[in-house]
Amino acid sequence: MTSITLRRPDDLHLHLRDGESMRSVLPYTAARFARALIMPNLHPPVLSTEQALAYRRRILDALPTGVPFEPLMTLYLTDRTDPAEVDRAKASGCIVGLKLYPAGATTHSDAGVTAIRKVDAVLSRMEEQDLVLEVHGEVTDPEVDVFEREARFIDQVLAPLAARFPRLRIVFEHITTRAAAQFVLGSRPGIAATLTPQHLLMNRNALFAGGIRPHHYCLPLLKSEADREALLGVVASGDPRFFLGTDSAPHARGAKEVACGCAGIFSAHAGIELYAEAFEAAGALGRLEAFASEHGADFYRLPRNTGRLTLVKAPWEVPRSCPFGAEELVPLRAGEHIGWRLQERQ
Ligand code: NCD
Ligand code: ZN
Which of 122, 168, 171, 313 has the CB geometry, 3.0–4.6 Å to 127, for a possible disulfide? Predict the structure, then answer.
């Protein structure tokens, strides 16, 4: 196959940042995706409907002229979120979910939830209003092995939560393990998961290939080859509970190439091309369109996009760096090749 045409996809997990940094990265996403679910972990975080609507406006104002793109907004859940905020979010028509970051789990998560029981009233209101809960699924206990934190989260937090709120729709974000894939497969209706390109394409050896690789460091961490194979297995099966969320998370080069570097992999420059590679390698290119353009829209009860996008099998070399506000960032595969290329809009 030398080209593939898809219904225009949605990126259902994206970090856009703000200001000049956002202006640098947004065009990559808008060139590929019709919509993206925008993560609220700004500094300070997006806590209220008012803040989310203002952020949405800044995103729309930063779009290149003539490029249609719809940001789907999320609120950052904290111990102090008021259930009435859920009502306001729903009424806005622009906010589709609330994001649960266990406090301290990842970049800008210090305002996150310290104990799940503290947000019971909010979760109950979300269930009533049918807003989606997006979950960063890792425990934060420093005693727990870093590679075990996702599996532990399922048992300690997610499974009981899904049972206590049986109608709450939940997205288990950026799953990385066989355990997470199996949890979703065995769970009640209303539970789905996003998968990133890096967790489909790399295992944890990529963190240490010839030396320490800060640009392969993200959270949750890359996992074992057996885990990666399990993730490829579920996406290749075409199960509608699994869909695209890049978790593209830009950081300036200096924040990553340092003694204590930030977590986050930037993939928006090839946000659909990398998945095409992964699906092709799994012999499942025919499943890419549903994964990228249908399952997520259906789960979020959004209309499927009507536009089209074409990928051509023509390797290209990824730049060694991209501008990022006044700084630069190092994209995934910098200086190396990607097998599929986006055909520019005619
Ligand atoms: C994200 C970021 O940089 O905002 N980093 C990451 O490694 N994925 C935060 C997150 O989604 O965990
Ligand atoms: Zn993320």
Answer: 168
